[in-house]
Design a protein that fits this description.
alpha/beta, Ribonucleotide Reductase Protein R1, domain 1, four-stranded antiparallel beta sheet, two-stranded parallel sheet, 44% helix, globular
């Protein structure tokens, strides 16, 4: 009886140990597989990044592509298909969003608020259906967050407010690096989604809008910059746009019959200055995404790279 009990106990122990070994082996295999995928994805991403300068040069040199980014996206996907298995890209024009950093302007060696651009941003808030009671607070907080002085605006909050709060990561007295920094201002809160898709943070203070990427999706930004333009005229610009895009302001006016006095020509460009490329790399059943924000210039063209939106 005792021997039988020992035998059963031994067999049970063997079964348990075998099960544990199986689990450990499977975990090791899974971890090894993940490590292999990750290493392979890193190698591919490095190769893609090294190829990026050629894509930038292509977009700079080819006026047909830089005036029609949808066509450019298709062409670039065809090129990359031959170079990298399982890779596809989407391209977004970052010259059609409202640049938060345009709310300040350089003065001598500092940044001061740009009230003219602030009025345009208020147009944008109104078109985005943000309640008017939030307008002054948000604009003032943006001024204070980015400008160089330490004097708070009437409805703002200056540097010490952000520095003293350990939960916030705002770098005061400097341009925003990413639009997500607006969340640190602790205003709008749950209503931030009303403007978030249409704003950006570019490493400059100018307002530029690429007329050849105007669409219904970014019309709010366009209408805020050109308040004399009607939605009907926006539709005219989109519908009458030639396949290779508008080339000059005169060309735009000729195609649409819009009064040129309604358009601030200093805000209008005809090809993108900044683009966001989203790379989607598939390795077997795993998908790896990463993003590059690029300025279309020959050297120092990378603004940032990230794996988040």
């Amino acid at each position: 009886m005792k021997r039988g009990f020992v035998l059963i106990s031994t067999l049970a122990l063997i079964v348990i140990l075998s099960f544990v070994v199986l689990i450990i082996s499977r975990t090791i295999y899974t971890d090894t597989l993940r490590t292999t995928f990750y290493a392979e994805s890193m190698e591919k991403r490095i190769q893609i990044i090294n190829y990026e300068s050629l894509l930038v040069d292509l977009l700079i040199d080819n006026s047909t592509l830089n005036r029609n980014l949808l066509f450019a996206e298709n062409e670039i996907n065809l090129i990359l298909k031959d170079k990298f298995d399982g890779l596809s890209v989407s391209i977004e024009d970052y010259s059609t969003c409202f640049n938060l950093n345009s709310l300040v302007k350089p003065f001598q060696n500092i940044y001061i608020k740009n009230e003219v651009h602030g009025e345009l941003f208020e147009n944008f808030l109104e078109l985005s259906q943000v309640e008017k009671i939030y307008h002054n607070e948000l604009i003032n907080r943006l001024y204070d967050a980015i400008d160089t002085d330490s004097l708070p605006e009437t409805y703002g909050a200056e540097d010490l407010f952000y520095v003293s709060n350990g939960e916030l990561s705002l770098s005061p007295d400097d341009l925003f690096i990413h639009k997500s920094q607006i969340k640190n201002l602790q205003t709008l809160n749950n209503n931030l989604f009303q403007i978030y898709d249409d704003i950006c943070a570019l490493p400059e203070n100018e307002i530029k809008f690429n007329i050849n990427s105007l669409s219904i999706d970014n019309a709010k930004v366009f209408l805020s910059l050109f308040p004399d333009i009607t939605l009907k005229e926006v539709e005219l610009i989109i519908l009458n746009r030639p396949e290779n895009g508008y080339v000059t302001l005169k060309n735009l006016v000729d195609y649409t019959n819009i009064d040129s006095e309604k358009l601030n020509k200093s805000f209008i460009i005809f090809k993108p200055e900044f683009i966001k490329i989203k790379y989607m790399l598939q390795l077997e059943n795993q998908m790896f995404n990463f993003i590059s924000l690029l300025k279309l210039q020959r050297n120092n063209f990378v603004v940032y790279r990230t794996i988040s939106v």
